[in-house]
Amino acid sequence: NGAYILASETCALDIVGAQLVRNIRPGEIVIIDDSGYRIEQYTDDTQLAICSMEFVYFARPDSNIYGVNVHSARKRMGARLAKECPVDADMVIGVPNSSLSAASGYAEASGLPNEMGLIKNQYVARTFIQPTQELREQGVRMKLAAVRGVVSGKRVIVIDDSIVRGTTSKRIVRLLREAGATEVHMRIASPPLKYPC
């Protein structure tokens, strides 16, 4: 219909029925005015640098980043993790929501059932961004709940996407133990975060 749509993720285009034309390249700027649009190169002193946390955490699983589907990438991370860090357990659970794809890959590669052992309160913001440790811990307490009927008496492998500060991981282990899990094995789907953007 003649509209221009620019979005940071392809899922936003899908929602409104738009088609991806191309990615904006490093050093480019898109200018939209009454005469239409144009793309200008404001610098050549740049290179493509994709933030790994987009694939690991930030992007929605139904988005594509430079042609790679985020869900598929996360699932492959989980499958590789299962091969590199196997453990004898009863089930795999993912930390909602960004770890669910990796948990699916881990479960599939290990032959274990993928269960919903944690549920997320959808109304709590990202906890690792909170300014103080106290607020981060409070956020994690409000954000997640263990499903006792699923984890009680079970040896559980928990797949999380990343560790930024460790607040969430500690709380998850405590939640699952309090819900009756006999063993809790944490597995992280991404390498250590050493050089953040």
Automatic annotation (TrEMBL):
Keywords: Glutamine amidotransferase, Transferase
GO molecular function, one term: transferase activity
Every Phosphoribosyltransferase domain range: 77-185
Stored Pfam families: Pribosyltran (PF00156)
Transmembrane intervals: none
Superkingdom to which the source organism belongs: Bacteria
InterPro entries in the record: Ntn_hydrolases_N, PRTase-like, PRTase_dom
Full protein name: PurF
Organism: Bifidobacterium crudilactis
